Amino acid sequence: MTLIKSISGIRGTIGGKVGDNLTPVDAVKFASAYGTFLKAGGGKMEPGRKLKVVIGRDARISGPMIHNLVVNTLIGLGIDVIDLGLSTTPTVEIAVPLEKADGGIILTASHNPKQWNALKLLNAKGEFLSGAEGAVILEIAEAEAFDFSDVDSLGEVIVNDAYMDIHIDEVLNLPLVDAEAVAKRKFKVVVDGVNSSGGVIIPNLLEQMGVEVVKLYCEPNGHFPHNPEPLKEHLGDICELVVKEKADFGIVVDPDVDRLAFISNDGEMFGEEYTLVAVADYVLSKTPGNTVSNMSSSRALRDITEKHNGKYQASAVGEVNVVELMKATNAIIGGEGNGGIIYPESHYGRDSLVGVALFLTHLASLDVTVAELRASYPQYYMSKNKIELTPEIDVDAILVAMTAKYAHEQISTIDGVKIDFATEWVHLRKSNTEPIIRIYTEAPTQAAADALALRIIDEIKAVISK
What Pfam families does its record include (predicted)? Predict the structure, then answer.
């Protein structure tokens, strides 16, 4: 059982001992720290104005419990709460500025299994907090320096369950989204909503774009029917159903709907990495410019960007790092290779709805199948692996050893260690959200990517065993 405190929030498994897991006490403590941070000036402090925070949650089983704890903690601090109820991460992100709120909290552990939950913290722009801001909140939580309001100054709750519909409207109003063109193509799409909020909002969006929807695991009951991380090994059911239904393609999202994966019409994975590649190809064809992804993402985005005469740059892993570099380089689209689309024309956050709508519009303009579209892009193959960490493993020592071993290659230590070989690369880093070392490799063939990953894993284990 685990509790992970990071600059982006707090994440842990439900139950167990205080401080070791995400218990009710820990949820209250970190909600208190966030509210205290806002009251101290982290929000838009104006004389006589109460602070306001937007709250939304995914459908996981512990959601209502954590939701009640967090909402009532903020009320106790004298902060008003806009309660979206069942929602998505990008929906909360767009709601914060629309509500002129001081911040937002999304209650979701994203792609983690059902025993996990988390508080993901937003600023007044509806964007994730900076590293410095997150560090301040962790300090406040550690010191338990909270000052709650008296009975006449308690916050209030305003329930607003319309924001998933508002979110859909915002997406459909984007200039590069053409719902009429999509409707004319009469697409048939299978949706795996992993029994969370994506099972509600994605089919609704598709139906408003004139798409026939086949639902798979779209009941928002929090009982995930498979591991909720949208990887090939977890998606056998939808791959089979796409072929059985003779659908044009399949859509898979994670529980909080900020990661998007497609299944091609032949039942094969389109590839999480190629979600961003395909959407960027469409956006760049209409509005040329620069792109950004993190350094664990495919080289294919660089190739597509350069095809459209733009400039590509790579950031450290983490949405806040991608957004920071996107702003610095005026990137018109960016994201992460895990299926996260960030389109500033909408907002600076990973958004599966934006990705779905742009992908459908792109596909509607082409006379190809999804499998043919995938084959048209530069062919790279990734292997994503991990090594479970125990307290006695010194991750920094491992990274130093691997850096020394490959000192003759092109190396970046901005975020862990990335080693660029002539035709392939490997990126090693400690996860911000799980007690693991992530090992990502990419090569021109799957066999080469897998072989590189196995070699690196063996080398890391050899370092650990010394």
Answer: PGM_PMM_I, PGM_PMM_II, PGM_PMM_III, PGM_PMM_IV
**Alpha-helix residue ranges (DSSP H) falling in 338-385:** 352-364, 370-375
Closest C-alpha to 366, from 356, 378, 354, 376: 376
Which residue in the list 110, 196, 293, 315 is annotated as catalytic? 110
Q: What angle do CA 203, 207, 208 make, to 5 degrees?
A: 120
Report the largest interatomic distance among the alpha carbons of the chain, rounded to a whole angstrom: 66
The predicted structure's pLDDT at residue 430:
87
Cβ pair 107, 96 in contact under 8 A: no
- Residue 136, pLDDT above cutoff 80: yes
Is residue 42 over pLDDT 70?
Answer: no
What's phi and psi for 127, nearest 5 deg? -115, 160
Which 3 state secondary structure label does DSSP give 382?
Answer: strand
Q: How far is CA 270 from CA 256, 276, 304, 365, 381, in A?
A: 21, 11, 16, 18, 11
**47/61 Cα distance (integer angstroms):** 40
Burial state string for 261-296 with b = 16 or more CB within 10 A and e = fewer than 16: bbbbbebebbbbbbbbbbbbbbbbeeeebbbbbbbb
Tell me the sheet residues that pair with 57: 86, 107
Distance in angstroms (rounded) separating the CA atoms of residues 410 and 23: 44
Identify whether the C-beta of residue 422 lies closer than 8 Å to the C-beta of residue 401: no
Which ranges of 376-429 does DSSP label H, i.e. alpha helix?
A: 395-405
Residue 44: pLDDT band with limits 50, 70, 90: low
Phi and psi (nearest 5°) for 393? -80, 125
222-268, pLDDT tens digit by residue?
999 999 998 889 999 999 999 999 999 999 999 999 999 999 999 99
Q: What are phi and psi of 385, to 5 degrees?
A: -130, 170
| Residue 189, helix vs strand vs coil | strand
Q: Could you give all domains of the chain from N- to C-terminal order, each with its CATH number? A: 3-161 (3.40.120.10), 167-375 (3.40.120.10), 381-465 (3.30.310.50)
Task: Name the phi and psi angles at 323, rounded to 5.
Answer: -60, -45
For the cut 90, the answer to whether the pLDDT of residue 4 exceeds it is no
| DSSP class of 366 | S
Enter the pTM of the model.
0.92
Residue 13 Cα distances to 121, 180, 223, 359, 433, angstroms? 18, 44, 16, 35, 11
**Residue 110 among the catalytic residues:** yes
Top mean pLDDT of 206-220, 400-414, 434-448 is at 206-220
Q: Can you tell me which residue has the tokens 């995930």?
A: 224
